[in-house]
Amino acid sequence: MLCKCIVSFIKNSTMLSISLIMQ
Questions:
Q1: DSSP states of 1-23 as a string?
Q2: pLDDT tens figures, 1-23
């Protein structure tokens, strides 16, 4: 359960940083 939370958090951060870079 905790692993899934961490993985999803990392994915969200990556998507956020990518969207920020693309702007």
A1: -HHHHHHHHHHHHHHHHHHHHH-
A2: 788 999 999 999 999 999 999 98
